[in-house]
Design brief:
Largest sheet: none
Structural class: mainly alpha
Order of helices and strands: HHH
Radius of gyration: 14 Å
Strand content: under 5%
Number of helices: 3
Helix content: over 70%
Distance between the termini: 26 Å
Length: 71
């Protein structure tokens, strides 16, 4: 997870401490989602989960780009 966050963060010139926070946040969040899925608390297929996670991350990146542009 870290290399991906840092790659995008560097393109957006995000502070390193913020990128470290995001790496931890996404790692813990994804681990929790997988645990919930394994415990059958979620009905989605693995493909659907990947699709939704990808959409969520893309939305977060778009929001970050807008926030950074506004300064």
């Amino acid at each position: 997870m870290g290399p991906v966050v840092f790659e995008f963060g560097e393109k957006l010139q995000a502070p390193k401490d913020y990128m470290s926070f995001l790496t931890h946040f996404f790692t813990v969040s994804l681990a929790s989602l997988v645990e919930s899925w394994v415990l059958r608390e979620m009905d989605e297929t693995p493909e659907k989960m990947i699709e939704m996670i990808d959409l969520f991350i893309q939305d977060q990146l778009r929001g970050a780009k807008l926030r950074i542009k506004k300064g």
